[in-house]
Amino acid sequence: MKLGYFPGCSLLGSSREYNESLQAIAPRLGIELVEIPDWNCCGATAAHSMSHRLALALPARILALAEKAGLTELAVPCSACYSRLLATHQELTENPGLCSEVNTVIEMEYRGTVNILNVLDVLTKAFANGSSPEVSQPFNHKVACYYGCYLVRPPKAVKADHPEDPQAMDQIMKKIGADPLDWAFKVECCGAGFSVSRTDVVARLSGKILEDAAKRGAEAIIVACPMCHSNLDLRRDAIAKGTGVKSDIPALYITQAIGLALGLDRKSLGLHRHIVPVCLKQKEPQAAA
Fold it and tell me: Residue 41's closest CA among 74, 85, 87, 102?
């Protein structure tokens, strides 16, 4: 399965482990990622609050570059980038006049021919295609699958399976031996872009997420968003100080969990970069009832 690839800024900076783990598992899943040449920042999270035209032009240029490269499907692992690209695609498709204006700004033609995929779309396709390899070390842990805001909203654009109770990540985790929990905060906001400007807000919101996951018996929180991972991993001290919620439950990218199940080494998956140590003990698979 050959896909265009837009890593975005976070995956080459603060969330390198997300890119590293995706690149590590891709060949094992039969995925070939072709990075878009000369890509730019998509504008998340601030551009749309400053200039509507800029917020459209930045993603439109990325999509136009993908089209120019002859790509028909584009993998966008960062959920904030995914949201911006998808929203831009929808708005420009519905408004040809605005699309023409944006094309003038970016000095390229965007035709709207690229199918935009988030990481769960990509992984679901890979597993459905039967190309997933044998799981050598089942991820036999109770997990809280955390989707956050961007992977399921807005529902009409994203076309999430169940916007309030999505199941795509849960199903993927089941395939690698995990036990996804039924919990209350899988689509609640973690504080998102307030991570720097309003750490108190992040502490309050992310604290509730961690508290509920712990009450349900989660051994790990599984994420697919750089901002969600940053808030749930980097901000543990702020969460403990602001809310009194103390937790050592690690937050893993879904690509890292898959990599562990495939027997890949921890360094190639970027697990050494986490603030909260990932110290999950390998357990024997439970016998079928």
Answer: 85
Q: The tokens of 216 are what? A: 């349900």
Query: Which domain does 215 fall in, by range?
Result: 135-273
What are the backbone angles phi and psi of residue 220, rounded to the nearest 5°? -155, 150
Total count of domains within the chain: 2
- Asked if residue 130 is part of any domain, the answer here is no
Please tell me the pTM assigned to this model: 0.94
φ and ψ at 117, to 5 degrees? -120, 135
CATH code of the domain in which 54 resides: 1.20.1050.140
List the Cα angle 136/137/140 in 5-degree steps: 140
Based on the fold, state whether residues 102 and 141 are members of the same structural domain: no
- Say whether 181 sits in a helix, a strand or coil: coil
Residue 170: give its domain's CATH number. Answer: 3.40.50.11810
Q: How far apart are CA 194 and CA 45, in angstroms?
A: 10
**pLDDT, tens digit, for every residue of 240-258?**
999 998 999 999 999 999 9
**Could you tell me if 251 and 220 are in contact, meaning their C-beta atoms sit under 8 angstroms apart?**
yes
Query: How far from each other are the two terminal CA atoms of the chain, in whole angstroms?
Result: 36
For 175-234, how does the pLDDT look when each residue is reduced to its tens digit (9 = 90+)?
Answer: 999 999 999 999 999 998 788 889 999 999 999 999 999 999 999 999 999 999 999 999
In a domain, 283, yes or no: no
Strand partners, 2: 32
**Which helix (H) or strand (E) element contains residue 79?**
helix 79-94
DSSP conformational letter for 225:
-
On whether both 63 and 168 belong to a single domain, the answer is no
Which residue, chain included where needed, has tokens 């036990």? 179
- Residue 195: phi and psi, rounded to 5, are -55, -35
* CA torsion, ordered 183, 145, 159, 116, to nearest 10 deg: 170
Do residues 13 and 46 both lie within one domain?
yes
